[in-house]
Write a structure and sequence with these properties.
Elements lengths: L2 H15 L9 H22 L27 E2 L12 E3 L3 E4 L4 E3 L13 E3 L4 E4 L4 E4 L2 E6 L3 E9 L3 E6 L26 E10 L1 E6 L4 E3 L2 E5 L9 E7 L4 E3 L2 E5 L7 E7 L5 E3 L2 E4 L6 E7 L4 E4 L2 E2 L3 E5 L5 E4 L1
Parallel strand pairs: 1-3, 2-5, 3-6, 4-7, 5-8, 6-9, 7-9, 8-10, 9-11, 10-12, 11-13, 11-14, 12-15, 13-16, 14-17, 15-18, 16-19, 17-20, 18-21, 19-22, 20-23, 21-24, 22-25
Helix pairs in contact: 1-2
InterPro entries: Pectin_lyas_fold (IPR012334), Pectin_lyase_fold/virulence (IPR011050)
Protein name: Right handed beta helix domain-containing protein
Keywords: Signal
Length: 325
């Protein structure tokens, strides 16, 4: 006899014996005790007994197998494989051209298991993701990628903690947070990431990149520097690695609490980077806002940028500019 069956029998005996206790239990207590015993017995039968009608109901149903979908121009449509991922995840693990055919939302409590994961998760090189005008709304990350030659373009990300996070092998951009110490001997691979024609709306951090030779251009970024941010580090764009080009982006910074600093662009180990034709606007107050912060970076060229921040540039002791106009 199984443990589940013995448990049900015992509870059934308790339920049957309850009327005999009517002389010693108040009527309300008797009803509550009987209801509880019956409820537990039924629950165990449904969950544990073989052959019961509800047995296995707690197991996630198997979804139909995922069938690849392609557009007429050969783009593979990203889909959520519900048999593989219990939470929304558009997973890419091979090179190719991908696109969205709908909007996606992923909001959850930070205390919930598996939250917040990225909506689009890239674990491959030579990947092109075309949003095709669609929106990803998320409380966690919009896009997370690891590889080389990843391009993200033509869409919108709303409300994310991090909009797009793309990482060089062995060098996460998170290692370049302004509050963390500088690693002076970093060697970066040629990642060639491209982020262009994207709109970021009310994100806490829009773009975080590491690697050599990345390109960020023609994006519109609205960043909220929320004082509740647990990192207490505020930036809209972080570029970690040399020879990047950051061009023709429009930033709007808002929500910075008094006593904090917030960067539109923060560059570390970014020798030879070109920052040109970007516009940075601030909210009600520009106090504490910085256009470009440089850390362990030399030879950066600033060209035709327009900043309404309190400070245009901040350089640490290991940084220098190649020129500006």
């Amino acid at each position: 006899m199984t443990l589940a069956l013995r448990t049900v029998i015992v509870l059934s005996m308790v339920t049957a014996a309850l009327p005999a206790a009517a002389t010693t239990l108040p009527s309300d207590d008797l009803l509550a005790a009987r209801f509880f015993a019956e409820l537990v017995a039924q629950s165990i039968k449904q969950k544990l007994l073989p052959g019961s009608e509800q047995a296995g109901q707690g197991v996630r149903a198997i979804a139909p197998p995922l069938v690849p979908k392609f557009t007429v121009d050969g783009c593979e449509v990203l889909q959520w494989d519900r048999n593989r991922f219990s939470k929304l995840s558009l997973y890419i693990n091979r090179p190719g051209k991908y696109c969205l055919d709908q909007d996606y939302e992923s909001f959850c409590s930070p205390f919930e298991h598996g939250c917040p994961g990225p909506v689009i998760d890239i674990r491959a090189s030579d990947v092109d993701v075309d949003f095709r005008g669609h929106t990803v709304s998320a409380s966690g990350a919009g896009v997370d990628g690891y590889g080389q030659n990843i391009r993200i373009h033509n869409g919108r990300i709303d409300g994310a903690g991090v909009g797009i996070h793309l990482s060089d092998k062995g060098h996460s951009p998170s290692a370049a947070y302004p509050i963390l110490p500088v690693k002076v001997n970093d060697v970066f691979t040629d990642t060639g990431f491209v982020i262009e024609s994207m709109q970021f709306v009310d994100v806490r951090k829009a773009i975080m990149l590491s690697g050599r030779g990345n390109l960020v251009r023609d994006n519109t970024i609205s960043a909220i520097f929320n004082k509740q941010d647990s990192t207490l580090v505020h930036f809209a764009l972080l570029s970690y690695g040399p020879a990047a080009r950051i061009e023709r982006n429009t930033f709007r910074l808002k929500g910075l609490a008094p006593g904090f600093n917030g960067y539109a662009m923060y560059l570390r180990s970014a020798d030879g980077t070109i920052v040109g034709n970007n516009t940075v606007r601030t909210g009600f107050s520009n106090t504490g806002t910085i256009g470009v912060g440089l850390s362990n970076t030399n030879g950066v060229m600033l060209q035709a940028n327009e900043f309404s921040t309190e400070t245009d540039t901040v350089l640490d002791a290991g940084s220098s500019l190649n020129g500006r106009d």
